[in-house]
Amino acid sequence: MGKTLRLFWAINLPDEIKDRLWEIQKQLRGTGVDAKWVGRENLHLTVHFLGEVDVAIIDALVSAVQGALLDRKFFTLQLGGLGVFPDARHPRVLWAGVAGGENELWEIHRLVAGAMLPFGIPLPGRSFSPHLTLARLRSLRGAPELMTMVRQLGPDYDNLGWMQVGSVDLMQSKLTPGGPIYTLMAKVRLRSP
After folding, report:
1. What global pTM score does this model have?
2. What is the 3-state secondary structure (H, E, C) of 104-116?
3. DSSP notation for 139-182
4. Active-site hit among 48, 90, 109, 131
5. Is 48 one of the catalytic residues?
């Protein structure tokens, strides 16, 4: 294997959705939870994580996804709800959920993941659970306060906004001590309705 890049397929968010999520993060930071917060510029919805990929096959990956999504049309996605993985007693990831357009998103995930198989990129080890990561908890310090606020504010965040999905983007993730830096590598456009 030659030079590799850490890649993933994602749906990038419009600025108004990022701004809304950033405001929620600021509010939840006040709980004092020991967490690494995802930067506003890095907020996205992962469709399929690829891991380290040989740069020599990037063009072929993009072509494969273009073929797989050839007949897929723009769709509307509603973001809504807050939650944690794996559970409220042991939260490790704080997320915003998908409240509408899940069927289309699942189909996009299925098609993209299937297009990656011929390149030796396996299906994820766990089932696809569409979400936007807001923070990763480093410890349980402040977790009870966070969970109390999530429960209290939950109904206020059942609708975090609607967005039109017009592309699936191949992103590079460069890990740095200050956090990951994401770079757009390719954009696979969906068909206009």
Report:
1. 0.92
2. HHHHHHHHHHHHH
3. SSTTHHHHHHHHHHHGGGGS--EEEEE-EEEEEEEE--TT--EE
4. 131
5. no
